[in-house]
TrEMBL record:
The gene is mutY. NCBIfam families: mutY (TIGR01084). Adenine glycosylase active on G-A mispairs. MutY also corrects error-prone DNA synthesis past GO lesions which are due to the oxidatively damaged form of guanine: 7,8-dihydro-8-oxoguanine (8-oxo-dGTP). It comes from Qipengyuania aquimaris. This is Adenine DNA glycosylase. It catalyses: Hydrolyzes free adenine bases from 7,8-dihydro-8-oxoguanine:adenine mismatched double-stranded DNA, leaving an apurinic site. It comes from the Bacteria. Belongs to the Nth/MutY family. PANTHER family: ADENINE DNA GLYCOSYLASE (PTHR42944). One of its GO terms (molecular function) is 8-oxo-7,8-dihydroguanine DNA N-glycosylase activity. Its cofactor is [4Fe-4S] cluster.
Amino acid sequence: MAASISDTLLAWYDTHARDLPWRARPGAPPTDPYRVWLSEVMLQQTTVAAVKPYFQAFTERWPTVRDLAAAPEEDVMAAWAGLGYYSRARNLVKASRAVAAMGGFPSSETELRDLPGLGAYTAAAVAAIAFGKRAVVVDANVERVVSRLFAIEEPLPSSRKIIRERTDEITPENRAGDFAQAMMDLGATICTSRDPKCLLCPLSASCEGRKNGDPARYPVKAPKKAKPVRKGQAYWITREDHVWLVRRVGTGMLGGMRALPDDGWSAKGDGHKNAPTAGPWRDLGLVRHTFTHFALELAVCETQATSDPLDEGEWWPLDRLDEAGLPTLFAKAARLALA
DNA sequence: TAATCGTGGCT
DNA sequence: TAGCCAAGATT
């Protein structure tokens, strides 16, 4: 009988696993759940290259989940600045405090799933990788690999159910964590979105997509919606080598992050609010920034203030602006102002 | 179910 | 270069 898909893939993983900072060697004892959890949250919709320096900085500054739980939320938000999807940072703080209160991470998938910021993927990944549990781990890599392996014609996202069933069928009882990481490594290095390296693939012999002749057309995807372009204004208000920064409220766009005052632009429409101080204003130029679901043209203007603006905020020293934790949009605006 | 929520790298 | 894409979660 031919070796199973999982046996073949695990054998490949034993010699081809990527060496990543948050990962134990194949077959080695499971690594610290804190590091697994932290890396998995950082890696949500985010590339390995982007995560590495943040993972390094976080684990150096907060070596354990208790250290992170004791940190002021604003410190964590500022440390997350630039990585995107800031609800992850807010949930990271909440989850770390819940875990610290429990005395450590729960080991079951269902209990992990109850922590803020852990959805189906992350709960399964932590249970499998950190605790050695059998769990069905489905991320975008697995979706692509499985769609090709079984030549699934149903388009994403409606194909998720069948993809999950197929993944369940090929997930082994033992080494489910290594299997998950092997699938992700395969997707990241061999079974890539464009130009898959089928000649190097350990699973090519059993790949229905390859037998069909065009594996790259999987996974089939539903067409995407067009992105609207919104216009907004940001205000660079200085006074004696300081700039006026605000903190964005709530759970919406860039929620909880430090920012320049703006005119209330959003995904729904252009900005409309009045400037936070009287002018005179001088135009500094335009910042173009594309979010997931819309593009923004942010005009930046400056003035020198003689008193505090109306909005709540703080005077931030210009020579420590890199410590303010501005999201990339406003970091671009600041760069324009300081150019 | 579908919309919301960032950013940087790649082609 | 303009679009595509990445270890998704939440509502």
